[in-house]
Specification:
This protein is α+β, with helices and mostly antiparallel strands. It is 12% helix and 27% strand.
């Protein structure tokens, strides 16, 4: 459900933290040329459309559409040079969380004061870091509610409530929190507490598509983590190992919402076929007597970067998973994937507090 804007005021910003962006000059359509009029006209239409969006008044629908549609893997990577925006969780694909901006420094920080405040309408936990592009902020609160805010004024643009059943809060270990959204090509992606992955229009907050990511309804699966998007693939993990849920991470097509691939963190029912060679290999390390306890190894933590042998444009998604069994063969592990197809690039195990490397490859 999307709610219309209203003036509201709990999230704090400061009067000296201003955005300075000079408007760019508009392009002028040249005279049509014989034989090339169609090609030139099409190219200029795209160019002018982008320029008009950039020159639109800040916070308007045209402005929001222009700046959010420009967010993709290439722009996120390019932004690392300036930190002008905060387009993805952790700022960049390495999730450094370190801004290069220097307008606020040790000399003038004492002059900061409250410019506006915004109420997230929540009395429960709030753990998300906002995503911000050219002054347009996307923030989540408890129950996976998404807020779009004009960071220049503190005014609400829209809110979206996925309608999670308020009676199902018990399914999670640690409150009904949400750790943020992903922004990609004009869409906002959020993982709902009840296991749905939802794509929203960044301008209006209207739902574009929705997918149920849960493999069963018997276990207490939840999603509290933020999705990551790489070259058109939206990746999301899950929580629930505390209650016996089997961990996995899934990639969906950002445009259609169709599932691209899925990888489980631990073996499943030994009476069923293995999902891939990595599960077959992993099953050999598990005590058959503990098969009923294989619901563990949740994958709530997805960390992105540009490591491994994949191309820098593609990036690497790293799954941080924790095995919750007290007598597990290992305590936790890290696995680096290629987002395009789920290929395992490298992995690291931590046994009894000591890290050790494991060879690349699914097996």
């Amino acid at each position: 459900m999307t709610r219309l804007p209203h003036v509201d005021s709990a999230r704090h910003f400061f009067r000296d933290a201003k955005t300075f962006l000079d408007p760019r000059s508009a392009f002028h359509l040249p005279a049509r040329l014989a034989y090339t009029a169609v090609a030139i006209g099409f190219g200029l239409a795209l160019s002018c459309s982008s320029t008009m969006a950039q020159n639109a008044p800040k916070g308007t629908a045209d402005h929001i559409k222009g700046v959010t549609s420009a967010v993709d893997s290439a722009s996120i990577k390019a932004n690392t040079a300036t930190s002008k925006d905060w387009p993805t969780i952790g700022l960049d694909y390495a999730e450094t969380r370190f801004s290069k901006l220097n307008q606020i420094n040790t000399d003038n920080v004492k002059n900061l004061g409250l410019m506006w405040s915004y109420s997230l309408d929540s009395s429960r936990g709030v753990e998300a870091t906002p995503v911000v592009v050219d002054g347009i902020m996307y923030q989540t609160a408890s129950w996976s509610v998404v807020h779009a805010i004009d960071a220049r004024t503190g005014k609400k643009i829209w809110t979206f409530d996925p309608g999670v059943d308020r009676e199902k809060g018990y399914k999670g270990c640690c409150d009904v929190v949400n750790r943020g959204v992903a922004l990609y090509k004009g869409r906002v992606f959020v993982g709902a507490y009840d296991g749905r992955l939802i794509a929203l229009d960044a301008v209006t907050g209207q739902k574009v598509w929705e997918k149920d990511t849960l493999i069963d309804k018997e276990h207490s699966y939840t999603i509290t983590g933020a999705p990551r998007v790489f070259n058109g693939k939206v990746l999301i993990g899950n929580g629930g190992a505390e209650y016996g849920a089997r961990g996995y991470v899934t990639a969906y097509d950002a445009d259609s919402g169709n599932q691209v691939w899925r990888w489980f963190t631990v073996p499943g029912d030994p009476n069923k076929p293995f999902e891939d060679s990595s599960m077959e290999a992993a099953a050999k390390t598990w005590d058959p007597a503990g098969a009923e306890r294989r619901g563990c190894g949740e994958a709530p933590g997805l960390h992105s970067g540009h490591r491994g042998r994949d191309t820098p444009q593609e990036g690497v998604i790293v799954i941080a998973s924790e095995a919750k069994q007290s007598r597990a063969a290992y305590n936790d592990f890290w696995i680096a994937f290629a987002p395009r197809n789920g290929e395992i690039l490298s992995q690291s195990l931590r046994t009894s507090g000591r890290p050790s490397s494991a060879p690349s490859g699914r097996s």
